[in-house]
Amino acid sequence: MNLQQLVRKNVWNMKAYSSARDEFKGEASVFLDANENPLNDKYNRYPDPLQWALKEKISKVKDIQPEKIFLGNGSDEPIDLVIRIFCEPRIDNIVAIDPTYGMYQVCADVNDVEYRKVLLNSNFDLDAGTLLEKTNENTKLIFLCSPNNPTGNLLNRKEIEKVLNSFSGIVIVDEAYIDFASEKTWLNDLEKYPNLIVLQTFSKAWGLAAVRLGMAFASPEIIKLFNKVKYPYNVNILTQNFVKGELDKLELRKEWIQILLKGRDFLNEELIKLPFVEKIYPTDSNFILVRVTDANGLYKHLADKGVIVRNRNSVSLCAGCLRITVGTDEENKILIETLRNI
Ligand code: PMP
């Protein structure tokens, strides 16, 4: 892979913004360089633009070098940035599976980049050959989401491997739900595939959606490009400090995952007993895609009772489907009771 050939010329040639304090790395007692207000003794200083202390901690938990980590305002930020780094508006294109997470297309549209969808098969499996047929010399990115949202399943590893081996552009594997999955992450394959970017997030298994912290893992050369185009202080100090503390709670997180997986089993067992449930799709995520006889009617009935699920009736291959997130034991029981009492 020739990275320079893939990257937009303006991004490759530009100089990154030099943040306040970039030029000074050591200890100092008087900071008069960043036009901050010295009268406040808390939160008055700009945070570390590259979040090194937080990256060091994530690096230990994930067993990956800090130079291979980009941190953003949710994983939505690197989804947008990767398009801005690699895709020339109105010239280049992106290929992605369909159905999948909606922000890939939104970010492509915002950036005026053609977005080509490749339907999964009826089991929501990926066929690498069909996907690769949609690429051409202007395809810079392929988005794969595994486990996939809204279908819940992991994409077949061998098919992802075929894509990584055959495609000369960048392959993004979005692993937002990987902590709930029965297979391992692609993080250990970054050395093998220099064109791979893995996305993960603190919003799901870590239970920190409100804090807004997402991760992109890639070669140091790709991470440098992310750092070049991001806003200087994209992760605020409250988020940096808070997540540093949360990273010490590894045991609690493992317990949460076990509780949610049990909740998922409970929902799987109970939902299938309901007369209007036609199919429950296998899931490796913290949600379940369910096909019912009347998705719109059921969605409305639940909403009227104060139970909100996601209506996916109008999404490709998901006609008749509701997407249900695993809740607490109590929430799961309320959902099932509300459905039984129809
Ligand atoms: N990827 C996938 C597959 C998602 O489902 C989501 C959120 N629903 C995200 C990325 C974005 O998550 P966040 O910005 O909270 O990290």
UniProtKB/TrEMBL annotation:
Domain Aminotransferase class I/classII large per the UniProt entry, residue ranges: 38-339
GO molecular function terms noted in the UniProt entry: histidinol-phosphate transaminase activity; pyridoxal phosphate binding
Cofactor needs: pyridoxal 5'-phosphate
Catalysed reactions listed for this entry: L-histidinol phosphate + 2-oxoglutarate = 3-(imidazol-4-yl)-2-oxopropyl phosphate + L-glutamate
E.C. designation(s): 2.6.1.9
PROSITE patterns: AA_TRANSFER_CLASS_2 (PS00599)
Segment forming the signal sequence: none
Any GO BP annotation: L-histidine biosynthetic process
Keyword entries, A-Z: Amino-acid biosynthesis, Aminotransferase, Histidine biosynthesis, Pyridoxal phosphate, Transferase
Keyword Transferase carried by entry: yes
InterPro entries attached to this UniProt entry: Aminotrans_II_pyridoxalP_BS, Aminotransferase_I/II_large, HisP_aminotrans, PyrdxlP-dep_Trfase, PyrdxlP-dep_Trfase_major, PyrdxlP-dep_Trfase_small
Residues recorded as bearing N6-(pyridoxal phosphate)lysine in the entry: K204
Pathway: Lipid metabolism; Amino-acid biosynthesis; L-histidine biosynthesis; L-histidine from 5-phospho-alpha-D-ribose 1-diphosphate: step 7/9
Subunit annotation: Homodimer.
Similarity field: Belongs to the class-II pyridoxal-phosphate-dependent aminotransferase family. Histidinol-phosphate aminotransferase subfamily.
Name of the featured protein: Histidinol-phosphate aminotransferase
Protein's organism: Dysgonomonas gadei ATCC BAA-286
